[in-house]
Amino acid sequence: MTDVRKRRARDPAATREAILDAAQALLAKHGPEGISLAEVAALAGVNRGTAYQHFETRDKLIAATADGVSDSMFRAVFGDPETIGERRVEQVDIADTTDRLAIFAMDNPELCRIWLLQLLASPDPMADPFWREYEGSLQRFADTDLAQPGIDVEVLSVMMLAASFLWPVWARSHARDDDERRHLARRMAQEALRLCMYGSLRAEFFPEVAERLRQGVAAADPSPSLSEKD
User: Which residues form the HTH tetR-type domain (predicted)?
Assistant: First the structure.
């Protein structure tokens, strides 16, 4: 243990990474309410003082861990951030992207919950890379002829992510084996795609709803995004 600590002391970046890895493991196991900096330091193989040098408070550690989750989600769902600008929205495989999100959420339910709670508490959600790309990619899609008119991209983004992250909790993914988790992820992705493709109501039987939606499209409400408000 002494040798590990001495080696890490000469490599602050590696020490920080070890602390974040430990925090992520404990958060996934116990949730944000069940960890302390002392426990994280012990798992990372560093002393508590070193952990406090990198993260002054437990909240800052959890926030940094959420940033790491955001990066992991980004790579799992969208790929390498360095190549993201090369994608054309017309060439994106929507079904594959939906599958990737559902699988990541099913395999990492606690981490996704931590990330979502941090995003909800953030004064600037657009600062988060995953949220910025997720909502941004939906907006780019909505701006093409491939999409139905009148999509409220912000609302749709929240709905899709919240559903994707809550479904594993409802399905108790932590108690499932790999095959069961893949099946549950597939169910989530299938329903998300079905709703996006077909909806759930047959318009001829709900004329009042159809009229309301037509009026909403015509109104083109210019209200700002909630993430842009003070």
Answer: 13-73
Residues 215 and 114: their CA atoms lie apart, in Å, by 38
**C-alpha torsion sign, points 219, 222, 223, 226:** positive
CA of 207: how far to CAs of 128, 203, 214, in Å? 40, 6, 10
Task: Centre a 10 Å sphere on the Cβ of residue 167 and count the other Cβ atoms it contains.
Answer: 21
Per residue in 69-112, pLDDT (tens digit) is 899 999 999 988 887 666 677 778 899 999 999 999 999 988 88
- Residue 224 pLDDT class (50, 70, 90 cuts): low
Angle 173-177-178 (CA atoms, 0-180°, nearest 5)? Answer: 95
Number of Cβ atoms within 10 Å of the Cβ of 147:
16
As a whole number of angstroms, the distance between CA 109 and CA 41 comes to 23
Read off the amino acid at residue 162. A
Q: How far apart are CA 106 and CA 116, in angstroms?
A: 14
* Assigned token pair, 70: 């955001």
pLDDT per residue over 118-158, tens digit each? 888 888 999 999 999 999 999 999 999 999 988 999 999 99
Tokens linked to 172: 């108790």
CA 95 to chain centre: 17
Q: Directed axis angle between helix 12-30 and helix 58-77, to 10°?
A: 90
Residue 226 CA to residue 230 CA, distance in Å, equals 9
